Known about the structure:
- By secondary structure, the chain is mainly beta.
- Helix content is 8%, strand content 47%.
- The chain has one helix spanning 58-68, and strands at residues 4-10, 15-18, 25-38, 44-55, 74-87, 93-106.
- It has a 5-stranded mixed beta barrel with strand order 1-3-4-6-5.
- A hairpin with a 5-residue loop joins strand 3 and strand 4.
- The longest helix is centred in the middle third of the chain and has 11 residues, at 58-68.
- The chain starts with a strand and ends in a 33-residue tail after the last strand.
Amino acid sequence: MQTLTLEGYLAADPSILSAQGSGKKRASFRVLETTRFRKADGTPGERTTGFNCICFNEATTEKYIEAYARKGSRVVIQGHVENDTWTGKNGVEHYDLRLIVGDIRLKNRRTRPPVDDSPAEGQVQEPASGYDLNDDIPF
Length: 139
C-alpha cells in the first residue's frame, strides 16, 4: 500500500457523521494545498489542489477533529488513497479519489469558541493581526 503525506488547510469545517448501524463517528473534510512555481517566462504562478479526506477512526474524530479542526486550520495528514465510485441521479457513473486518514496533526490547536463567542476561562486571546480564520481562504 502506498502512503501519502499531505499538508494544507481545511476548506470548511469538517462534517462529523454517524454510521447508521453502529453509531460510530467519522469525519469528512476537504484539504486545500497550494503549490507556487515560476512559469517558463519567469512570471510566478500557483496551483491549488483540493483533496477529499475521510477519517474512520472514532477516537481521532471525537478528540481532535471535532474538538479542534475548523475552516482554515493547518493540517498534516498521512494516509492512503482509495477510488470512490458512485452513480448519479441521471445514471452517470462518477469517479473520485479520496484520502483515507491514518494519522492527522493539527498545526494550530485551539478549542472552538463558546456559542456566545466570549472567550472561555483559560483560553488565550490572540492579538488582532488583520487575519481572520472565518474569512474565505485567500486562494
